[in-house]
Amino acid sequence: MQNITPSIRRKTDRRAKKSRNFQDRFLNSLRGEDVKVTVETTSSKTYTGKMVSFDQYVVILETENGQVMLYKHAIASISKA
Predict the structure, then answer these.
(1) CB 3.0 to 4.6 Å from 51: which of 5, 7, 27, 31, for a disulfide?
(2) Angle (nearest 5°) at CA 66 between 64 and 68
């Protein structure tokens, strides 16, 4: 019996990498444009500020009240303010 797990894993890794690259390009363009963004979380909280930084897991916004770190898995939407 053949083990098909490695090929499935490779396809999944490629899809995750492509989506991450798209996400990275989007977030990087928002950071580079230096515009205000509105971030809505899955718990319906809204944050407005400028994108400072991001990595694989978090986004950092500069708001009127200081910097806010948001976990990407808790973000429902990001839009220009």
Answers:
(1) 31
(2) 110
Amino acid at 8: I
Each residue's pLDDT tens digit, 57-81: 999 999 999 999 999 999 999 999 8
Overall number of domains in the chain: 1
Domain containing residue 33: 5-80
- Which tokens is 17 given? 């990498």
Q: How far apart are CA 54 and CA 38, in angstroms?
A: 15
- Output the domain CATH number for residue 30: 2.30.30.100
CB 60 within 8 A of CB 52: yes
- Contact criterion met (CB below 8 Å) for 36 and 48: yes
